[in-house]
Structure formats: structure tokens, C-alpha cells
Amino acid sequence: MTEDKNESNGHEEEESSQAPEEGSTPEPEAVEAAEVKHSWRSLARNYISFVGFAIAVAAIVCIALLFLLELTGSTDQPYLGLLIYILFPAVMFFGFFIVLVGIFFERRRRRKFAADEIAEYPVLDLNDPRRRRSLIVFLVFSILFLFVSAFGAYHAYEFTESVTFCGQICHEVMQPEFVSAGAAPHAELKCVECHVGGGAEWYARSKLNGVRQLVKVSFNTYDRPIKTPIHNMRPPNETCAKCHWPEKHHGEQLKVFTDFAYDEASTMSETKLLVKVGGGSPETGRVSGIHWHMNLGNEVTFIATDERRQNIPWVQLKDSKGNVTTYTRQGSNFTEEMIARSEKKVMDCIDCHSRPAHIYLSPNNAVDESILAGKLDRSLPFVKRTAVEVLTKDYQTTEQALATISDEFHKYYRDNHSAVYASKQPAINAAVAELRRVYRTYFFPEMKTDWRAHIDNIGHFNAQGCFRCHDGNMRSAQGKVIRNDCAICHVTISQNYRGQAVEPDNGRFRHPLNLGTAGNYNCASCHKGDRAFRHPVNLGDISRFSCNECHKEEGF
Fold first, then answer.
1. How wide is the angle at C-alpha 540 spanned by C-alphas 536 and 542, nearest 5°?
2. Where would I find the beta strands (DSSP E) of 266-323?
3. Any domain includes 13
4. Helix or strand holding residue 53 (H, E)
5. Which of 160, 190, 216 marks a domain boundary?
6. 375 and 336 share a domain?
7. Within 13 Å of residue 257, how many CA atoms lie on the same side as its CB?
């Protein structure tokens, strides 16, 4: 009996040493081993996750490289933050996503094996040719990927600073700005130098604004034309002033205005002015001239009732001594309550220099420049008038405009001056080529963009400009007036009107028509850039007339 019992106990011990049956509770050591086999660190030890780690590490290296560039760079690089804080972090998170994908597939693979059949790490048996080749390929790929990523990161950084990035990525939307900037005085500057500048605050603002613009482009809801002025533009004293010293006294600058008539000979007129640019600072010397407005000791604040800041009913001046003078437009219904709730803007460079980098010449001015440059032959009869007329027609597309300009220009000389058309074909063809160039540079019908869409407030042609405030109708409660005397801003040295020397009126410009007292008129009322003045008498096709053809007896 005892032997049977011992034999029975031996069998029970043998059975107990075997693995538990299905449904029974495993020993704690077995559970711990199984959890280790399926922990995320263990599951991440697979080739797919290794690729994800390689991508993430490359992104981290690129972020570190660009961050060092930002710290050691000698100039502001506004778009560098786009790479450091947005693009490469996104690549890094993509790498981590690949790691998770690898974990997912590794977990599915391990379910097919028993716990003791699962290796903690991928088996790297270098004696196995297949595994050896796989390891070498992975290492070479990782090193190359890291190198290419760092190299690409630097060149991506350079590309985001380029004008191409700003002006040509969204081709149709930014084409007017890109093309016109290339023909303007600031053509060598990068877009970001003025539109963003340095520092985190304005970089963040520009990025938020860029997201809004991207959404509009994606859904084709962007403005046509792009609205100006840009109301969230960085203050010019943080961008323009880096090159243009606001306290410098510039004195008087000679300016020569050359224009051509709409008569048969496209007769030239020339006016020479000394423009009182002025400027300066009380600490460094005299303060005078037009740039007196921007002297840092003065503060001019105004209210505009329209988005384009052309209608200004209220101006306030605070001088260097703290004295405040308020001017309001006579005859306006702008009440104290309206003044209190209106947005007030401190005057800066852009309020006058409204087109510093993206200049759109009017047909009249563009043709004058082409004639002066010898690109349009003045021996062609009525070349100025004909050129302006073909440029100002209402076109729906650039392709239509370029074709029509050629057809209409040829048709005019073929129908009206057949002898000239036969003898001056090279001059006519050259004129057509020049007018097509002018149109491609300053006119963009798809974006509804031209000189009328983007007003140039320098001077007072084609827009009110200076006369927004200096029209003689802005008065203070003490009786002070913002004057509209021409001599405030410039002195006329000489005038030559269509070959006739004209004596200036005590340094003031003498208009060829008798317009009454100087300063009591607004140049932009007649000079609209395309001869679109509405005469009080119906003269039919007004574009066929010049004012002096009828008003000769009222001139000088």
C-alpha cells in the first residue's frame, strides 16, 4: 500500500511539473516572461520600426542643424522657423508613426509563435549571407538618409528665403506682385525682408496669416485683386528703417518729369523740380521738408473712413514738445462720437510710399517711359495716343490682351497711315513688342490688378496722394490750416511745355490751362492715367482730345 501511494505521489509530481492545462492560471514567472515578449520596447525591435527611428533621428539632426544656423546667422531669416518648428518636427512625428506601424505588424507576427519561440531582438547572424546583406543595406541607407536630410534641410532653408518661393509657388495669385517687384527699385530685396523681418512675434503672425491665405488659395476664394494697403503689415520702422535712416536730412533732390502729348508728333514737355525731401532730427541738425512728417520727434495720427485710406476727415499732430493740434475736414459730418470709436493710425512711410516694391504704372506713365527710353518711335504719328488706347481696353485675359494689342496697333496704322505702315514696319513691330512687354509687367486682368487697384500715393497724379490731407480743407479749432501750397513740397526750376519755355509762378508750377489760384484743384481729377476724364460737355470719344486743343486761349 505504501509503495502504491509513493508511486502515485511520484506521478502527481511529474504532472505538476508540466505546463498548466488550457484555462488554468499560469505561474507568475510565465506571465512576466510573456509580457516582456510583448512590451513596446520589445515590439519596436523590428526592421520597419528601425526605419521609422532612422527617419525621426534624421529629422532631429536637421532641426539641430537649422537651430544652430539660426543662432549663428548674421541676418534675420524669417522662414527658418517654418523648417525648425513645423516642417522637420512633422517629419520626426512621421518617423515615430512608422515606428508604431512596425510595432503593430510585429505584434501580429508574434501571435503566431509561442513565448519561448520569440527572440527579444532581430536575429543578426552575420554568417547568414541574407541577414548580412540586409544589415549592410540598412546601415548604408541610414547614413545616406541622414546626410541627404541634412543637405536638403540647408537647401530648403535657402529656398524659403528666395523670391521664387514667395512669388512663384502660388503662380496666379502672386504673379502681379512677383513681376511688378522685378521692375521696381527694390527688386534686389527678398520678399521676407519687408513682409516678415526678423523675430519670433512677426514670424508667428506671418505664419498665421499664411495659413489663412493657403485656405483661400485652396478653395479659390482669394481676393482679386489682393487688397491693399495691408492692414497687418509690420511697422516700416522695423523693416524699411534698416536701410533708410529716418533721421537723415536729405535736403532738396532734383526731379525731372518728362511727358509726351497725345498729338501727332507726341510732343515732349519737361518740368524740373527741386523736391524738398528734407527730414532730419533736432539732435543732428535742421528739420524740414516732406520727411518732416516722419521725424521721430513728431507724431501724425489720422483716421481714414475707407479701407484704402484715401478719405481722411481727421488728423492730429503731436510735435516734439508735446503740443497737440487736431484738424478736421470742413463740411464733413464726422462727429466726436465717430472720432472716438474710429481706428486711429500713426502715420508711417507706407502711408505715402504706398507702392515701394510693387509698382504698377498707368498706361500714360508707362508709355511716357517707353518713349523716353527709345522703345517707341516718336516718328510714328500719334504713337503716344495709340499706345495708351490699346493698353487701356478692357481685356479679360493676358492672352487676349497681347493678341489684341498687336492687332489693334497694326490696324490703326494700316487703316489711317498706310504709307507709314508700309515704310516703318520694323518700328511698328518694335512698338508692338514693347507694348506687350509693358502689359505683361503692369497689367494682370486675371487678378484684376493694375494701377487703379493699387494706388500710389507718392505725389498727386492718378490718386489724391498728398491732397488727402493737403487740400486746404483741414482746419483746427484754433483756425490753423493744413496748407495745399505747392511750394511746401517742391520748387519749380523750369518748365518747357511742348517746346515752349514757361516761366514758373514764383517757384510754383504753372499749369498750361488757367485753373485759377494755384492749389485750388486736385491733379487726380483730370490726370487719371488713362485719359478717362469726364468732360462736362459730351465730346464723344474723349480719348481723341487733349485739353489744350480747345483751351488754348486760357493757357499761359
1. 70
2. 268-276, 299-303, 314-318
3. no
4. helix 47-72
5. 160
6. no
7. 17
% helix / strand / coil in the chain, to the nearest 5? 50, 10, 40
Whether 292 maps to a domain, the answer reads yes
Distances (CA, A) of 341 to 38, 134, 326, 344: 66, 72, 16, 9
Using the CB atoms, write b or e for 154-188: b if 16+ within 10 Å: eebbeebbebebbbeeeeebbbbbbbbbeeeebee
Domain boundary residue among 187, 202, 233?
233
Determine contact, residues 122/128, Cβ cutoff 8 Å.
Answer: no
Q: Which residues contact 544 (CB under 8 A, 6 or more apart)?
A: 385
Claim to verify: residue 99 and residue 225 sit in the same structural domain = no
Q: Tell me which residue of 166, 353, 74, 343 sits closest to 241, measured CA to CA.
A: 353
Q: Cell for 502?
A: 514757361
Cis peptide preceding 225, ω within 30 of 0: yes
Residues 119, 183: one domain? no
Domain range for residue 283?
A: 252-355+458-554
Cα angle value 464/470/475 (rounded, 5°): 130
C-alpha cell at 401: 490682351
* Per-residue pLDDT in tens (0 to 9) along the chain, 556 residues: 444 544 444 444 444 444 444 444 455 444 444 444 557 677 887 878 888 888 888 888 877 877 776 666 544 455 565 667 667 788 888 889 988 998 888 888 888 777 766 766 666 677 778 877 877 887 787 777 667 666 666 666 566 556 566 655 655 678 888 888 888 888 888 777 787 766 656 666 666 666 677 677 777 788 888 888 887 778 887 888 888 887 788 889 999 999 999 999 999 999 999 999 988 877 777 778 888 887 667 899 999 999 999 999 999 999 878 899 999 999 888 889 999 999 999 998 889 999 888 899 999 999 999 999 999 999 999 999 999 999 999 999 999 999 999 999 999 999 999 999 999 999 999 999 999 999 999 999 999 999 999 999 988 888 889 999 998 899 999 999 998 888 888 999 999 988 889 888 888 888 887 765 544 567 877 788 886 555 666 665 544 555 655 655 445 5
* Alpha carbon of residue 110 to chain centroid: 56
Do 147 and 39 belong to one domain?
yes
CB count within 10 Å of CB 445 equals: 17
- Say if residue 340 is in the same domain as residue 465: yes
Does 17 fall in a domain?
Answer: no
Half-sphere exposure (Cβ direction) of 136: Cα atoms closer than 13 Å: 7
- Number of domains, the chain: 4
Dihedral sign (CA 106, 111, 113, 117):
positive
Does residue 246 lie in a domain region? no
**Residues 308 and 375 both lie in one domain:** no
Cα dihedral 414, 419, 420, 424 in deg (nearest 10): 100
